TrEMBL record:
EC number: 2.3.2.27
Residues annotated as domain RING-type: 37-77
Topology versus the membrane: Multi-pass membrane protein
Source organism per UniProt: Parambassis ranga (Indian glassy fish)
Keywords: Apoptosis, Endoplasmic reticulum, Glycoprotein, Membrane, Metal-binding, Transferase, Transmembrane, Transmembrane helix, Ubl conjugation, Zinc, Zinc-finger
Membrane-spanning parts: 140-161, 361-381, 401-427
Flavoprotein in keyword set: no
Gene3D superfamilies: Transcription Factor, Ets-1, Zinc/RING finger domain, C3HC4 (zinc finger)
Subcellular location: Endoplasmic reticulum membrane
Protein name according to UniProt: Bifunctional apoptosis regulator
GO terms (BP aspect): apoptotic process; proteasome-mediated ubiquitin-dependent protein catabolic process
Major site of localization recorded for this protein: endoplasmic reticulum
Pfam family membership, one: SAM_1
InterPro entries linked to this entry: SAM, SAM/pointed_sf, Znf_RING, Znf_RING/FYVE/PHD, Znf_RING_CS
Amino acid sequence: MECNTADDFMEDPSYLSECSQQKPAATSSISEHEFSCHCCYDILVNPTTLTCGHNFCRHCLALWWESSHKNECPGCREKWEGFPKINILLRDATDKLFSEVVQRRREEIQANPKISRSLLAFQRYGDNLGRSRTNQHKEAGFFFSGVLTALSCVAVMVLVYHCSSSVVEQHDQLISKPVSRWTTEEVVSWLENLGPWAQLYREPFQQENVNGRLLLMLGDEELLKPPYSIENQAHRRAVVAELDRLKALGVKPPQNLWEYKAANAGKSLFLLYALKRSPRLTIFYLYLFDYSETFLPFLHTCCPAVTHIDQSVERTFLDTQMEPSWRQWVEFLVKYCLLPYQLIAEFAWDWLSVHYWTSRFIIVNAMLLSVLEGCALWRLWTTARIRTLPHKMWNHLWKMLSQGFAFAILWPFVPQFVCNCLFYWALYFSPIINIDLVVRQLMHPDTEAL
C-alpha cells in the first residue's frame, strides 16, 4: 500500500493511520503541522475551531481568553461569534492518529490546576452567554405575548361593554318576564316567533285580547273552536307543544344564543367552558339534568330525523319536540363516542342564519379541538401508553367534577361583568389560542406533554 498526500486523510482517516504505521517518518512530516495548535505548537487537544477558521487547543483558547478578556482569535485577532465549540471531527482524527501524545497531554492538563480553573471559567462564560441569549428570545416572546394579551383583554372589555349597553337591551324581554304578566302585544309577538305559518292566526289573538293568563288557559280544544279556529292539525299541535313549554318554564324559551345567555347566564358560561374541556361529560350532564330544554333540541339539530322534501315548516318544528327515533339515537351515540366536537360544529352550522360570525368561530374552534384530541390519542398510541387511558379518564372525570362543584359555589359571588368577559373570551379568542396549539402539535409533536 502506498501513501500519497494529505488529501488521502480527508477521504479516509483509517487509510492514513495505516500508512502512518508503515512509514512513520513520512507521516510525521506531513501530519504534525496540519494537526498542531497555533498557540502551543503541539498536537491539538480538544481542538476548537473559531469563525475565522483557525484551530486551537481548548485549554490554550481558555488561557488566552482569561488573560486578554477579548473574544478574538489569538492569531489573526478576528472576533469570534457566539461561543466556540469543539471540532468533533478534528478531535476524533487527532485521537486516532496521535493517541499516545494526546493521552499524555490530557493527563498533564488535568494535573495543572491553573488550566483546570481557566477551562471551568471559560465554560461558565459560554453557559451564561447561552442563557442570556435564550432569555432575550424569551423576553421578546413574552413582550409580544403580553401585548397580544393586553389588546385581547381590551377588545373583550369593549365587546362586553358594547353588548351590555346595546345588544342586551334588544333581547326579547319575554325570556325573563313571567307568562302570566304578558300583554296582548307580547302574546302576539310570541306567536309570530313560532314561524311564518303562525301569521295566519295573529288577528284572532288580537281581537280576543289574549294576554298571558288567557294564553295559559288555552288547550287543543279551545284552539280548534272559534274564534281561533286552528283547523290545521300540525299547526295546532305545534302551538300546543309550545304552550306546554311555556307552562313548564313560566317564561318564553330562548330562541337563540344571546337569549339563552340572558336567561341562563351561569349555565351558558359553564357549558361554554365545559364543552371545550370535556364535551362527552357535558353532553351526558345535559341528558341527565336538562333533557327537554337543551339536550333534546341539541340532538334533533345534530341528528335530524329523515324528512320529506315537501314537509312543512310547522311539521319540522313539531318534530323537534318529539322523542328521537332509534336511528337518531344510533347516529348520535356514534358521533358522541368518536367525534363529540363534530356534534357541536353541526349544531353551530344549523344556526348560521341567526349567528353568522359566532357560528363560524364555534365551528373553527370545534375543528381545532378535534385535531388536538386526535394528536393526544396518537401520542398515547405511539408511546405505548394507551393502557394508561382509563387512569387518565378517571383523573379527568374527578377534575371536571371538582371544577364544576367549585363553579357552582363561586358563581353567585362573581360579578356579571367578569362573567361576560370570560364568556366572550372563550367564544371569540379561544380559537386563536387553539390555532397556536395545533401548529405546535403538528410542527413539534414530540415536545408536547401528554
